[in-house]
Amino acid sequence: MKKRRYLLSSTACLLAAAVLMAGVCAGCTGTPAAVSSRTDSESLSSAQATAQVSSMPAKPSSGSSGQTSSAAAKPPQNKAQGETVFDVNKYKEQIKNAKSSGYAPSYRYDGMTLESTYENSFAIADCQVEKVEFVVILNGQPHTKLDVKVIESFKGDFKPGDHITVYVDGGYITADEYIKTRELESRFPNLTQEQRANTIYEMKCMDAYEERYAQVGDRYIFGLRNDELLGYNYFPTMGTFTAYRRDASGRYTRRPDQKAKEGIKVSGNSDESFTLDWFRSKMNELAKGSM
Fold it and tell me: Cα separation of 149 and 226, whole Å?
């Protein structure tokens, strides 16, 4: 069984978890048993608190062939284990001034080529985002939860009009939930309950290169795997390396915000950016090759 693992690296992922302490200091913002972790220092307040950061592995229900196990046949439950909703409206001011922290995931399979994405994905589909919600699941890992409608399916049993849920790495979490889920009470002795409740982390996956979160109406082509931790819902096979956002011209591009930021213009079809017609042709080619 393949597993999706997260490895945190202070040199590679800038985990300087900046936080906003509302009203306290001006300018300051799987399966549990299988958690892979390492220690990083994180500044929460002028009191020099540090925390051991654990990241949650999402455990794909798949065999070595890339095909799903019998567990994958269970119907979606639309809610991950231990899921709690992060109320964005409640923390608008904290979020507005929050600084992002990052973590770098490491996967046992890759998605850098469309061939790899096809081989390792349970399903591949063009989807339209209908609802965006920030949630924290099981052991304190923030995710962006997307309720999407399938527009077109390229691999798997999805049909146009199907509604599925996709969990994407990254989102928000209160310090209180962060401390409780990671059992870090003793590391933050100087934070009052009020301070913990009003201190917000924004944790982002460093492979994302996204300047913004998904929005209602966005179109994405996702390479997807399913996961019992996620209630047999789905996550991108290799984070945003297997997620392509559609732009105004109709092209689908991986990490579009980073490309725009760096002034990279995409025109030809490749594993990084493509037209829908070209992608259909590529998927048909890969499907025939897998028979």
Answer: 16
Rounded distance between C-alpha atoms, residue 63 and residue 3, angstroms: 10
Asked whether the predicted pLDDT for residue 87 surpasses 80, the reply is: yes
Contacts of residue 289, Cβ cutoff 8 Å, sequence gap at least 6: none
Residue 144 burial (CB count, 10 A): 20
Structure tokens at 291: 């028979």
Measure the CA–CA gap between 61 and 231, rounded to whole angstroms: 11
Nearest to 135 by CA among 106, 173, 166: 173
- Contact at 8 Å (CB) between 142 and 103? no
Q: Taking the mean position of all CA atoms in its chain, how far away is CA 164?
A: 16
Task: Identify the sign of the CA torsion 151, 157, 163, 167.
Answer: negative
Average pLDDT of the segment spanning 265-275: 93
Q: Does 40 or 182 have the greater pLDDT score?
A: 182
Q: Which residue has the higher pLDDT, 211 or 282?
A: 282
**87/129: higher pLDDT:** 129
- pLDDT for residue 10: 27
